[in-house]
Write a structure and sequence with these properties.
By secondary structure, this protein is mostly helical. The chain contains 11 helices and 4 strands. Helix 1 packs antiparallel against helix 6 and helix 8 packs across helix 10.
Length: 222
């Protein structure tokens, strides 16, 4: 009987957390949409003036429990950026550097001038509010990893599979713990371990703390 009461208490705690987190996601996403409404009108024009191609960019990412979804971003690279990286022979050196550096690049030549500014301010991530409203993402959560990245990094860091599985138990976030902790340059295994530790705590207080620290983390890129 005691065990059943304990299990019921845990279930209720998780349910309250999920309801509260979803309410927080919707509220913050709507607020951000209205606060930055002028940017929604200006940024697509600047992107189109800076380079040819659509203003919005979508890419497959891995969500909670391995669900694949299309993440939305303002386009910060040339329109055929993925094809250039993975198929163009002239980008072979960049491709090798990309995979060896845990799927992150500094001074990526595919980034446009407007895109560089968007990335420095993390404005390219703004369209993800629609992913949040749809329910594929949360305001706060682990990084939204690409399917190919998960596969490649699991082979490179086989001991990190347990952390990957744990991180994928919750929705990925627009912002997250390692992004606001000044540890943006850590390797994948350390990064996903931080994500896994966040996922295991399920704390709305921590979510609010991360949200409060996010503006400073965004500006610190300058």
């Amino acid at each position: 009987m005691a065990k059943r009461k304990r299990d019921d208490g845990i279930f209720m705690t998780i349910s309250v957390y999920r309801i509260g987190k979803r309410a927080l996601d919707i509220a913050v996403a709507i607020i951000l949409t209205f606060i930055f409404l002028p940017l929604w009108l200006i940024i697509p024009v600047l992107i189109k003036l800076g380079s040819s191609g659509p203003a919005l960019f979508s890419q497959l990412r891995v969500g909670r429990n391995g669900k694949i979804f299309k993440i939305l971003k303002f386009r910060s690279m040339v329109a055929n950026a993925d094809d250039l990286l993975w198929k163009a022979s002239t980008y072979k050196e960049l491709r090798n550097k990309f995979t060896k550096s845990d799927w992150k690049l500094e001074n990526d030549p595919r980034v446009t001038g407007v895109g560089w500014v968007l990335r420095r301010l993390s404005i390219d991530e703004f369209p993800q509010v629609f992913n949040i409203l749809k329910g594929d993402m949360s305001i706060v959560g682990p990084r939204a990893y690409r399917p190919q990245e998960i596969e490649a990094q699991a082979k490179k860091y086989p001991y990190a599979k347990k952390w990957i599985e744990k991180a994928l138990m919750v929705k990925p976030g627009l912002t997250g713990l390692w992004q606001v902790s000044g540890r943006n340059d850590v390797p994948f295994d350390k990064r996903v371990q931080i994500d896994a530790e966040y996922a295991s705590r399920k704390s709305l207080v921590e979510d609010l703390w991360i949200l409060l620290k996010t503006p400073k983390a965004m500006l610190s890129k300058w």
